Structure formats: C-alpha cells, structure tokens
Amino acid sequence: MSPRAQRVADQIQREIATLIQLEVNDPRVGMVSITGVDVSNDLASARVYVTVMNTLSEHAELNQETMSAPGELDQLEIDENLNALNKASGFLRTLLAKRISLRAVPKLRFYFDSSIERGQRLSNLIDDALEADRQLHSD
Length: 139
Fold this sequence. Notes:
There is one protein chain. The protein is an alpha+beta fold. The protein has helices at 3-23, 60-66, 75-87, 89-99, 115-138, and strands spanning 32-39, 45-52, 107-112. The chain has one domain (3-114): GMP Synthetase, Chain A, domain 3, CATH 3.30.300. The protein contains 5 helices and 3 strands. It starts with a helix and ends with a helix. The model has no long low-confidence stretch (mean pLDDT 83).
C-alpha cells in the first residue's frame, strides 16, 4: 500500500469506528471493533476488518441458552454482524464522505478478522505448555 493509501486507511478506520458506534442503529450490529482497513492504491475500495464481541440481551435466561462460553463466538452472530455492516456500507460511506475530504470515498466491504481469537488460542496453548513444564520439573 502506498503511503497515501495507508494514511487514508488509518483515517477511515478511526472514522468508521466512530460512525458505527454513534450512527448505526441496526440491532443486529453488536459490539464490533475495527481492527484494520486496507485501501486499494486507486482508493476505489476499502476492506474493513472487524472483530465481534459477544453481546448480552436483556433476558438472563436467553443469555444462558444462547451465549457460548466467554471468548467463544457463534458463527451465526459473526455472520449477522457482517451482513448488517455490509448492508449499512452505503450509509456509512455517505457519512464518511461528509467527515473526510476525499474526491471519491472508497466502497466499503466488511470482513471478519479472526487474528485476535487465534492469538488468544496461541496464548492459551503457551500458558498450558508452561504449566505442564512447571509440573514436570516440580515432581
């Protein structure tokens, strides 16, 4: 990515995070975090990478039945958030055009970023290996 495209991607990342939080009223969009944006060199399209956090409803019983263990996400929840964000991409693009000064605002496409989950899984494996090593040497 060119330096200019990188600057535009960084600005889009900041603005999209704010816009999702303040302007998107779709109930399917839960707690999402924008982890990165890749903009094409011609600034025509942008890939927006998001992670989805588990969200709780107002009903405790429903949460018990539908929520997975902390840290684990339902693929259905991820897909629902991505579909809602991709559906709102035109709306977000319009709002983005008002907030940043570009001749043409890139088309937005949202993708799930599983790098945080992979990192957590690797961290847990390392912790387990260290604990097993401690137990082996303490005996």
